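step: validate -> pass
step: tokenize input -> pass
step: predict -> running
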Amino acid sequence: MSVQSLLVSDSNQLEDEIRQDVIEIRQELPKLGYRLKTVYTEARNGLRFCALYELIGSSDHHQPAIGYLRVSMYQQSNNLSLVTQVQQMLALAEQQGQTIIRIYVEAGLSGADSRRPAFQAMMRDAIYNGDIRAVYCYDLYRFYRGMQGLANNYHALRENNIELNSVADKTDLNSKDGKVMIYLRGITGEIYLDDLSRTVTDNKFRRASQGYSNASLPPLGYCRGDCSQCSDNNGPAYCPRFGSPHD
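step: predict -> pass
step: emit ->
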């Protein structure tokens, strides 16, 4: 198999994993007592999913908190699945004597994107609700990737006496050491995104130079390089699958 075919195969596998992750979290949250309240966006056959789930009977709790889950298009593994994130967040909240009454889910979006609809709704809920005591995330990279955005949103929560709690970051984020952790995570997250952006751009340029489409749905007559003919011939992607020979 060609290098190009391997890249396409990895991309397709990643998309399938994220879609499966979304299916699993939509099945798991109702089992945990949460009902779907709002879908902000759902696109690309489940590859992008942004929604709000609310705990049934949430008004009965005196230490309410909210949770935020996210997976991106470029990083996904079993350790970061949405189900794993929510299970560990709920366990941490229980240890803290708090109840996560609303869970915001975001799949298929980068943590550097400040326009994430579920993230924006979560921040409004936390700051303007008046009853929220804490925001839970699996790790700070799930919450925000980027130094300025992470610091700004962290301080917005703290100014409203709302704690930010992370499962993976063992340091108390609301202490002096926690402030240092915020900036360290922000810097490393930003460096990661810079490297990722360069890699993605280089790969897209390479695909385009070889005649392959970078679109999720390629133009009629073209493929993404993953059909048997393209894989066998390592050729430009005017695909015989659609009745036209390779050039």
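step: describe -> Residues 36 and 233 are 47 Å apart (CA to CA).
step: cleanup -> pass
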